TrEMBL record:
Family: Belongs to the glycosyl hydrolase 2 family.
Enzyme class: hydrolase
Name used for this protein in its record: Beta-galactosidase
InterPro entries: B-gal_small/dom_5, Bact_Beta-galactosidase, Beta-gal/glucu_dom_sf, Gal_mutarotase_sf_dom, Galactose-bd-like_sf, GH, GH-type_carb-bd, Glyco_hydro_2
Species in which this protein is naturally found: Streptomyces lacrimifluminis
PANTHER family on file: BETA-GALACTOSIDASE
EC identifiers of the protein: 3.2.1.23
Length: 962
């Protein structure tokens, strides 16, 4: 006997079509008067392991879901239920299921969601117009029933879908049932580098649609920079009037009107409030007048070429995943504005629409990117790539139109992006064609199209400095079309772990070549998931069978949105005012690096700092009307007389917000510059004391040494442990580099050479007349290379001077991670120093390191990179005091201190692996290798490599109370 059982049909899950039953896409807006009901909140929830694991009787009214669990909508079920509902999966490029499009695994976690709701008592009569049920985001495929009626199903996780439900509603006890499948044909189009997180993760809303209410509308609001006039025309599917009281505008929909306006730019986000009124509804409009065009081979807004100082932003919250509330979105925008960021690429999907409202309001240029990535097909040379297979084109066009229609009324959106890392193909061309025809007022971007067949700009990711420079010079070749187009780096400066390094070097290239219109750092935020076990979890922490580790933690802010040093560096590198000078000639050059704004929002203050402390301050009269691109030379006052001589002095000039702005408080620092007024006197320690030997101990000034080994024991009675040469650092993600990188990957090479296990051979301890000399050779096992290292100690009675001479031996082919001495202090907490601060800096990440006298604690010196790695160095340190020890450098040094060793730091996978020991380990480095961006970009530039060569450096050590 043969038979077939027919399970419930779940064919739609693997259907390449975008879905069934949804209304055509349209503008997303909040009505002034039509009612709406948020259906967010607690929903009943049942998880099945397969798409057909449960029948659909739950959708019937009267179904008793009393024993179901509950989840919060919006949310991802894998982040709720304490692990009872499965776990997140992180993969970068690879699909976490077999690649056999459009088929998905039988094991397809499926969440049935049930919500019963009443209409509010003031909900208009059910006969008055209709109602629409809107889903703003569901991953990855949903089927929907209302009051037992199957109303359709959809894919396109980060796009809005609406259903007409007016006929189905009743006053009380409406049953909304939503079945969500984690995997669907749509998953093949959603292979973005992020956690796979199923669920109804954006709002669900019921919208009343009165008769003759607004359906869809398109606000066209251009700006003519030659006349100073804006032209407004609002196309509306339903006729009505448009009023803008401030501009005395009152016109019919469809009619253009031209009036004098202030334009909208990201720097001056001028919005005009208007209303679109139809017979049935009033819709508030926030109108920004601006014109985006490709002219003279450049991206121009309001007639001017703009420079993107951007970031790639994924939506992220450490507890709620991609379910973001308004305050979190606002926090992102405010943080960006306060760090001089002027642009966002919404990598790699349209964000929650409220985020774009914030970009309109606070001012950010937006590249709105479609919810599309098929990166995993690269593993099979792009065979079967959906974007080159006509069967998928309707789904691609659906995604393109859902993005454009939803977001078309935002002045902040200046560029549409087709998606990310999807190869090339006819489907993408079809998307570009459709977008170009639907919206002629914006440009089209797609990085994968190096010939620029479909795009209005040449875009690349992670092109190195040299190539970017060549592109800037127009020497990069390419198709005829490409050569006519401007260039952007849609991703650069991979902010994974410590770094990115070398972004100041990029910025110089961006500013030197008109064609290069800036870039977008990858990426805004670390996608760490708050987790009791690890603090923050990353890929692999949930036992995923395939994962890409901490590659998901590569943001400028930590998961809790604390800025990382990378963001502080970026803020300095992209500051909109350049303050340069040579303090000795009495002038400072101020350059307006905005594209549109003058300097009237800023005040300038100077301080004259002696040995890191301001001795006099004042304001600097910088012309407020200084035009974008223009510079002014401004006279500094006479330096304070009594402060000269014998000390290091410098000028610090800061540009501050003159008044509270929408995004920053009065006094918020926007830009700064520092330049020397008098050079630092080098510390001198006369060698006047003589070493004295007694009971196996050598005493030299305040220092005691082991007579046999020459090891320093104490200074002024304060114990010092294990002072010796140190070349190892816990490799950073950028030291390790990504597997596909063409440049040398030093993390691995260093380890192979054994720089993490250097042996110190003692050759001689020599007591001289006024010095103690310890000769050593520092080298790794199994290698012939070594560093002949001589420690020479002298003292003037109060202070000890250590001079370290390093003489390399053998054929060194690698630079060093670091070069300096490490020592242990039995106890230390407070740290003060004069040098770069307040945050960390490395050779190619120290633009933001400001010279001053800083104070911190050992704990606070640590930068909590989610995967522990080298961090926390303070650059250009003249002197530092820690644990009763004072260190004066000759020359300046890099200062690092922590409660664990570099080896322990290196061994840790999560911050929770680091436990403070009894000793505080202090590194005084003469050199540090730069950081680079090789975790996904170019390595450390040659000028920041710490090449092996003879070196000599000194520190003066003394005991202090601190
Ligand atoms: C590039 C991706 O576009 C981005 O999503 C992210 O994965 C980034 O890299 C690395 O974090 S693609 C890369 C293979 C160049």
């Amino acid at each position: 006997m043969s038979f077939r059982t027919t399970a419930m049909s779940t064919d739609y899950v693997e259907d390449v079509s975008p879905g069934r039953g949804a209304l055509p896409p349209r503008a997303w807006y909040a009505s002034s008067d039509a009612g709406s009901l948020s259906l967010n909140g607690s929903w009943r929830f049942r998880l099945s392991p397969t798409a057909d694991g449960a029948d659909d009787s739950f959708a019937e009214p009267g179904y008793d879901a009393g024993d179901w669990a509950e989840v919060t909508v919006p949310g991802h079920w894998v982040l709720q239920g304490d692990g009872a509902f499965g776990a997140p999966i992180y993969t970068n490029v690879r699909y976490p299921f077999p690649v056999d499009p459009p088929r998905v695994p039988t094991q397809n976690p499926t969440g049935d969601h049930l919500h019963v709701f009443d209409l509010p008592s003031d909900w208009p009569g059910l006969s008055d117009g209709g109602a629409v049920l809107r889903f703003d985001g569901v991953e990855s495929c949903a089927r929907v029933w209302l009051n037992g009626t199957d109303i359709g199903e959809f894919k396109g996780s980060r796009l809005a879908h609406e259903f007409a439900v007016g006929d189905l509603l009743k006053a009380g006890g409406n049953v909304l049932a939503v079945r969500v499948h984690q995997w669907s044909a749509g998953s093949y189009l959603e292979d973005q580098d992020q956690w796979w997180l199923p669920g109804i993760f954006r709002d669900v809303t019921l919208l009343h649609r009165p008769a003759a209410s607004v359906l869809d509308f398109f606000v066209h609001s251009s700006y003519d920079h030659t006349t100073g006039e804006g032209t407004l025309r609002v196309e509306s599917d339903v006729e009505g009037r448009v009023t803008v009281p401030e501009l005395d505008i009152d016109v019919r929909t469809g009619d253009p009107v031209t009036v004098a306006v202030e334009p909208w730019t990201a720097e001056t986000p001028r919005l005009y409030d208007g209303v679109l009124v139809t017979a049935g509804e009033r819709v508030p409009l926030r109108i920004g007048f601006r014109t985006v065009e490709l002219a003279d081979g450049l991206i121009k807004v309001n007639g001017k070429a703009i420079l993107f100082k951007g970031v790639n932003r994924h939506e992220w919250h450490p507890e709620r995943g991609r379910a973001l509330d308004l305050e979190t979105m606002r926090a992102d925008v405010l943080l960006m504005k306060r760090h001089n960021v002027n642009a966002v690429r919404t990598s790699h999907y349209p964000p929650h629409p409220a985020f774009l409202d914030l970009c309109d309001e606070y001012g950010l240029w937006v590249i709105d990117e479609c919810d599309l990535e098929t990166h995993g097909f690269t593993e099979q040379n792009w065979r079967d790539n959906p974007v080159d297979d006509d069967r998928w084109t309707p789904a691609l066009l659906d995604r393109a139109s859902r993005m454009v229609e939803r977001d078309k009324n935002h002045p902040s959106v200046v560029i549409w992006s087709l998606g990310n890392e999807a190869g090339t193909g006819r489907g993408l061309t079809a998307m570009a064609k459709w977008i170009h025809s639907r919206d002629t007022s914006r440009l089209v971007h797609y990085e994968g199209d190096w010939d620029c067949r479909d795009t209005d700009m040449y875009s690349r990711m992670y092109a190195d400095h040299a190539e970017t420079e060549r592109i800037g010079q127009g020497l990069d070749g390419g198709t005829h079309k490409r050569r006519q187009l401007p260039f952007i780096l849609c991703e650069y400066g991979h902010a994974m772990g410590n770094g990115p390094g070398g972004i100041a070097d990029y910025q110089r290239i961006f500013e030197a070549h008109d064609r290069v219109q800036g870039g977008f750092i990858w990426e805004w935020i670390d996608h760490g998931i708050k987790d009791e076990r690890f603090g923050y979890a990353y890929g692999g922490d949930f036992g995923e069978e395939l994962h890409d580790g901490n590659f998901v933690c590569d943001g400028l802010v930590f998961p809790d949105r604390t800025p990382s040093p990378g963001l502080v560096e970026y803020k300095k590198v992209i500051e909109p005012v350049r303050i340069e000078g040579d303090g000795r000639d009495g002038t400072v050059r101020v350059t307006n690096a905005y594209d549109f704004a003058d300097l009237s929002a800023l005040t300038f203050v100077w301080s004259y700092d002696v040995d890191g402390t301001a001795v006099e301050t004042g304001t600097l009269a910088v012309p407020a009307t200084l035009a974008p691109g223009a510079s002014a030379d401004v006279k500094l006052p006479q330096p304070p007389v009594d402060a000269r001589g014998g000390a290091e002095s410098l000028w610090t000039v800061r540009a501050l917000l003159a008044e509270e702005s929408a995004w920053g408080p009065e006094g918020h620092q926007v830009a700064w510059g520092q330049f020397p007024a008098s050079a630092r006197p080098t510390p001198t320690v006369a060698a006047s004391a003589a070493p004295v030997l007694a009971d196996g101990v050598i005493t030299l000034g305040p220092g005691t040494f082991d007579a046999r080994t020459g090891a320093l024991r104490s200074i002024g009675g304060r114990e010092v442990r294990d002072l010796r040469l140190d070349v190892w650092r816990a490799p950073t993600d950028n030291d390790d580099g990504a597997a596909w990188q063409p440049d040398e990957r030093y993390g691995m090479l260093w380890r192979n050479l054994g720089l993490h296990r250097m042996q110190h051979r003692l050759d001689a301890v020599e007591s001289g007349e006024d010095s103690l000399t310890v000769r050593t050779r520092v080298a790794p096992a199994a290698a012939e290379v070594g560093l002949n290292t001589v420690y020479r100690w002298t003292s003037d009675g109060d202070r000890l001077k250590l001079t370290v001479s390093v003489d390399p031996e053998g054929h060194w082919t690698l630079p060093l991670p670091r070069l300096g001495v490490r020592l242990g202090l039995p106890a230390a907490d407070r740290v003060t120093w004069f040098g770069g601060g307040p945050g960390e800096g490395y050779p190619d990440t120290k633009s933001a390191s400001m010279l001053g006298r800083w104070e911190s604690t050992v704990n606070d010196l640590q930068t909590p990179y989610l995967r522990p790695q080298e961090n926390g160095a303070r650059a250009d340190v003249r002197w530092a005091e820690i644990g009763g020890l004072r260190v004066d450098g000759d020359p300046e040094f890099w200062f690092t201190a922590r409660r664990w060793t570099s080896e322990q730091l290196d061994a840790a996978d999560h911050l929770t692996d680091l436990t403070p020991g009894d000793t505080v380990w202090v590194n005084l480095d003469h050199g540090q290798q730069g950081i680079g961006s090789q975790s996904c970009g170019p390595g450390t530039l040659p000028q920041y490599l710490l090449r092996v060569q003879p070196a000599e450096f000194s520190v003066a050590l003394s005991a202090v109370d601190n």
